[in-house]
Design a protein that fits this description.
The protein is α/β, with parallel strands linked by helices. It folds into four domains: about 190 residues, Calcium-transporting ATPase, cytoplasmic transduction domain A (Distorted Sandwich); about 350 residues, Calcium-transporting ATPase, transmembrane domain (Up-down Bundle); about 150 residues, Rossmann fold (3-Layer(aba) Sandwich), CATH 3.40.50.1000; about 160 residues, Calcium-transporting ATPase, cytoplasmic domain N. The strands form three sheets. The protein has an eight-stranded mixed β-sheet, sandwiched between helices. Strands 10, 11, 12, 13, 14, 15, 16 and 17 form an eight-stranded mixed β-sheet that branches. Strands 1, 2, 3, 4, 5, 6 and 7 form a seven-stranded antiparallel β-sheet that branches. About 50% of the residues are buried.
């Protein structure tokens, strides 16, 4: 489908440029970025046929668009109403029921005589299909807004040089080789190489996970020696290049001139868009339901023909045999499964909405519960995505309010761009009641920040006329401009030994993921106002430093601990650096037993990655594609994977997961890609979501296992009766009514209680478990069914009608059959309903574990309705007769014995296979 979308989005290239068409792979686009980062300006101009800073002319624009494609990202086509309806109604069970309804329509109506025409069976089956399909359609009808969100993010204009003139060009018309001018507030319209930069600060948090804006330069990128030691291929990640800017990021401050290297689908943003708008993966929930469905259908396809042949040969009525086999097929089909599942999911969605959680895809609730691995981004999900001032320290590493005061004066009085660090300093000072500094001091002069010096200075004067210059910046720069240090209350020369001690102290905080700024001051021999310059930043006194951190959310540690108790392993997948990641992991309670960097992942093939992902819990410096690849690997290894993220860089991984989870502060594309959105920042709702998901699974699997085992047992009984009884054990319409009453009783199952022990463990769908359960527990009911057949045929029947069936006249035989049908109908309903309570828990029902009130009420009403039916005119209309009181004494005794046997068998099953449900 994605190929079709691409064919609509990208124009066909001419043969002249066939080799470099819009069909270029992601690896080719990546190579283009890496080469662009390392090339000189002149080489780039030659490579992309650009007239230096004069830009493309109109002819060149057309050629480059033809060669590299347009600057539009992939979009998903909205499903038509007809397609949505088809998806809601078409599943294995509804297809079977539809076929059965058609056959029933022909046999019961079209081919029947006028007096025998009856559409009751068709109406019952059609009602089941309609209710299930409509409910599913209403609950699951969602439009795909991800592509719209992507388009809105890039539908702007940008200052572009064309024909030697500056022009405002729509971002969708940008082509490779364009010269673009960026300013503060611009959204970057493509992946570009910076040619000229002045104080350029780019926010890439949504792409890389870095919470702090990134400094960009214009020189060719050269990897430093340390990076080469870390990994041979670390430079192969374009996101590491400090002279590239990427589509979807935004300019925080400064200005730049850049050359476009990739557009549209070839950009990082475009690759993410393609993965988000492509076909959704089949989740564990969908795989599980489908696998169970096909097992049941296979059993039905085997047993129904056997019933047909047995009935036809023994009774000699092949038309009746077809009708009976048809009813058996309906009886074996858990036709209410789609409706039970939908009601279960809808109930879970309502429960989660009370926790301020939006459930966009109902199937994701069960996936949430079966999840055994939660992958999470760091920035904005585990952390607050805001910088706070953690420490203000003197050079001895002790808390010092004086350092904070100097930092506040510098940040508050500067007139340049106030970045996140400045805001954190001012906010912390305000919390420390330093408001008086605003009135006691006034600014005299300043030396603005630049990325060469990596520091900025202000000159302030207090109300006594005392003047001082305060400088803050990167610790290495502050050591260069400081000649003295304030150490233990004395001003001492800054010796190499002291400088090393300070550096070691700062490195300790850097290793904890903190960013450190040095604070120096000077108040001697200051020049006159207007004469301050960068040369004045010398002979200063280093008084301390400030340490900053993006703090973890208060709820993160509690949430991760709770998830661990429920068997969910948490893995961190972030684009941020390893030092910061280690610090956050420590704060939120995730042990870093091993760590893989994006460069390491890049070198591994799928088999090697699969071998590593189980043991490694922390992955850092990842690209969006690498995050998605790790999620794929975890799913290949048999895990049900959730992904919690909030950035553009998380969208692909969310799409690949069984359940994508986002938070209220996420970017639009992350929220659109997510199945579940947390409206509150409190991550403890994750635990509640897991519990709710496991309740949904528990109550769904109860219905499936109980119903299929009961139906399977009934079919064994039917085959035995069809082989040895001279009449059908139950009429086709009676079987449908029995099935309908039982299914209505089961509609309360979504509101049943679930044992606490069941909720503690993640559980995936296992079709073989359903098959084993069916084979073990199904025949158990057949024992008592056959016993009931014997008691009715040789006991109650002859006693009521004065002789054996074969000795009676036709009228008495009709009464005999009506009694038999009514008795087995009531007996089947009692045992089927009783077994709901027996098999819904591995514990002793009614004593150790009790069903919810809705389940008790609905099953009781079902039993009452079915028991009363033979005594009503409606019951007589469908072929029943009133039952003798003595039959109920037998029924009660038989039900108690059946209940005890089921309890013994289920205990043996649980011991052998480790679990019941």
């Amino acid at each position: 489908m994605l190929d079709k979308i691409k064919s609509l989005l990208w124009r066909k290239p001419s043969s002249e440029y066939a080799r470099d068409t819009a069909n270029a792979s992601n690896s080719e686009a990546k190579k283009r970025l890496i080469d662009g980062a390392r090339s000189s300006h002149s080489d780039l101009f030659i490579r992309y046929n650009v007239a230096a800073y004069d830009g493309h002319d109109d002819e060149a624009v057309a050629i480059m668009r033809e060669r590299y494609g347009e600057n539009t990202v992939a979009s998903s086509k909205k499903l038509s109403l007809a397609r949505q309806l088809a998806q809601a109604f078409i599943n294995p069970f509804t297809i079977v029921l539809f076929v059965l309804a058609v056959i029933s329509f022909f046999t019961d109506y079209l081919l029947a005589t006028a007096s025998d025409r009856d559409l009751t069976a068709v109406i019952i089956i059609a009602t089941m299909v309609t209710i299930s399909g409509v409910l599913r359609f209403v609950q699951e009808a969602r439009s795909n807004k991800a592509a719209e969100a992507l388009a809105q993010m890039v539908e702007t204009t940008i200052d572009c040089v064309r024909n030697s003139q500056d022009s405002e060009v729509p971002t969708g018309e940008i082509v490779v080789g364009d010269i673009v001018k960026l300013a503060a507030g611009d959204i970057v319209p493509g992946d570009m190489r910076v040619l000229q930069a002045k104080d350029l600060f780019i926010s890439e948090s949504s792409l890389t996970g870095e919470s702090e804006p990134v400094e960009k330069f214009s020189e060719p990128y050269q990897e430093d020696h340390q990076n080469q030691q870390d990994s041979q291929n670390s430079s192969n990640n374009p996101l590491d290049s400090n002279n590239l800017v990427f589509m979807g990021s935004n300019v925080v401050s400064g200005s730049a001139t850049a050359l476009v290297l990739t557009v549209g689908k070839d950009t990082y943003f475009g690759q993410i868009a393609a993965s988000v708008t492509g076909k959704s993966i089949q989740t564990s929930f969908e795989k599980g339901v489908n696998s169970v469905s096909w097992i049941l259908i296979r059993f039905m396809l085997i047993m129904v023909p056997v019933v047909l042949v047995l009935t036809g040969f023994t009774k000699g009525d092949w038309t009746g045999a077809v009708l009976f086999a048809l009813s058996v097929a309906v009886g074996m089909t858990p036709e209410m499964l789609p409706m039970i599942v939908s009601a279960n999911l809808a109930k879970g969605a309502v429960a989660m909405s009370k926790q301020r959680v939006i459930v966009k895809s109902l199937n994701s609730i069960q996936n949430f519960g079966s999840m055994n691995v939660l992958c999470t981004d760091k920035t904005g999900t585990l952390t607050e995505d805001r910088i706070i001032l953690e420490y203000s320290l003197n050079v001895q590493g002790e808390d010092d309010e004086r350092v904070l005061r100097h930092g506040f004066l510098n940040s508050y009085f500067q007139t340049g761009f106030r970045n996140l660090l400045d805001r954190a300093i001012v906010r912390h000072a305000d919390e420390s009641n330093m408001d008086d500094l605003r009135t006691r001091y006034q600014k005299v002069d300043e030396i603005p920040f630049d990325f060469v010096r990596r520091r900025m200075s202000v000159v302030v004067e207090d109300d006594t006329g005392k003047r001082q210059m305060i400088t803050k910046g990167a610790i290495e720069e502050m050591l260069l401009v400081s000649k003295y240090v304030e150490h233990q209350g004395a001003i001492l020369p800054l010796t190499p030994e002291l400088a090393q001690k300070i550096t070691d102290q700062v490195n300790k905080y850097n290793a904890q993921g903190m960013r450190v700024l040095g604070i120096s001051q000077r108040n001697d021999d200051l020049p006159a106002v207007g004469e301050f310059c960068t040369g004045t930043e010398s002979d200063m006194v280093l008084i301390g430093y400030l340490a900053f951190l993006d703090p973890p959310k208060e709820s993160a540690h509690v949430a991760i601990s709770a998830l661990r108790e429920y068997g969910v392993k948490v893995k961190i997948l972030t684009g941020d650096n390893d030092a910061v990641t280690r610090k956050v992991c420590k704060d939120v309670g995730v042990k870093v037993n091993g760590m893989l960097l994006g460069a390491d992942v890049e070198q591994m093939d799928d088999q090697q990655l699969d071998a590593m992902v189980a043991d490694v819990d922390v992955f850092a410096k990842l690209s969006p594609q690498q995050k998605a690849r790790i999620v794929q690997s975890l799913r290949r290894c048999g895990n049900t994977v959730g992904f919690l993220g909030d950035g553009i860089n998380d969208a692909s991984a969310m799409k690949e997961s069984d359940v994508g989870i986002s938070v209220d502060t996420a970017v639009d594309i992350a929220k659109e890609s997510a199945n579940i959105i947390l409206l509150e920042k409190d991550l403890t709702v994750l635990e509640k979501g897991v519990i709710e998901g496991r309740k949904v699974y528990g109550n769904t699997i109860k219905y499936i296992k109980i119903t299929v085992s009961s139906n399977f047992g009934n079919m064994f009984s039917v085959m035995a009766a069809a082989a040895f009884l001279p009449f059908l054990p139950m009429l086709p319409l009676q079987l449908l009514v029995l099935n309908l009453i039982y299914d209505i009783s089961c509609t309360a199952m979504p509101w049943d209680n679930v044992d606490e022990e069941f909720l503690k463990k993640p559980r995936g769908w296992d079709a073989s478990s359903v098959q084993r359960f069916m084979v073990w527990l199904g025949p158990t009911s057949s024992i008592f069914d056959i016993l009931t057949f014997i008691v009715l045929f040789f006991g109650f029947g002859p006693a009521m009608f004065g002789g054996s069936f074969f000795s009676l006249d036709t009228s008495a035989q009709i009464g005999f059959i009506a009694l038999f049908h009514a008795a087995w109908f009531v007996s089947s309903l009692w045992t089927q309903t009783l077994v709901i309570h027996a098999l819904r828990t591995p514990k002793i029902p009614f004593i150790q574990s009790r069903a919810s009130r809705p389940v008790i009420v609905m099953t009781a009403l079902g039993v009452i309705a079915g028991t009363v039916l033979p005594f009503t005119s409606l019951g007589q209309h469908i072929g029943f007769t009133a039952l003798p009181p003595s039959f109920f004494a037998y029924l009660i005794a038989m039900s108690i014995m059946y209940f005890c046997l089921v309890t013994v068998v289920k205990k043996a099953f649980a011991r052998k296979y480790g679990e019941l449900l």
